[in-house]
Each structure stands twice: as structure tokens, then as C-alpha cells.
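ingest -> validate -> predict -> emit
validate: passed (alphabet ok, no gaps, 101 aa)
predict: started
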Amino acid sequence: MILVFATFNKKATALKIGKALLAQRLVACYSLFSTESAWWWRGKIIDDNGPLVIFKTKDTNFTKIESYINKHSGYEVPEIVAIKPSKVNKPYLDWLEFETK
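emit:
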């Protein structure tokens, strides 16, 4: 299991991508959070509000998820970061394995 963190420029984009990844069964679920972010872009500091999404999935789905987000995020350089939890309760892990391809 991995958690894939991604940020988006609009909530509508995050929801559209989340629903598409669910429909393709590439993720078992996702959580969306409102965030305030700042970053360097082309020599300037950018401040913005946008959603952070945490997708829950199998390790083997990362490349497909990364590709989909890259194509549909609206960012030139989207943030896509996977983290592997060191511990996950077995019933949740079993459910995630069952619900994803």
C-alpha cells in the first residue's frame, strides 16, 4: 500500500481526477483537504490556496496514477509524492487490495 499526495489548482480538478481514478479502480479511496501553499516558480514566490489530495492505492498503481495526474492536473510540474506506510491495519489493507486493480 502507498499514499499518493498530490496538489491541484482547483477543487473541481481534484474531484474530477479523484473520481476518474476511482472509476478506473486505480485507487480505493481519496481524501481531499483545503490548503494554503507557497512555492518558488520562475524566480517568484507564489502564494495560493488549493486542494491537497491523498490517494490510497497499491504500490503497483503509482505509474498509472502519476501519468494520469500529469496529463490532467493543469500544472506544468505537478506535485506527486508517494509514501509507504510502515504499518497498516489488516482489515483496511485487505479492503484496499480488494477494491483496486
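The two ends are 12 Å apart (CA to CA).
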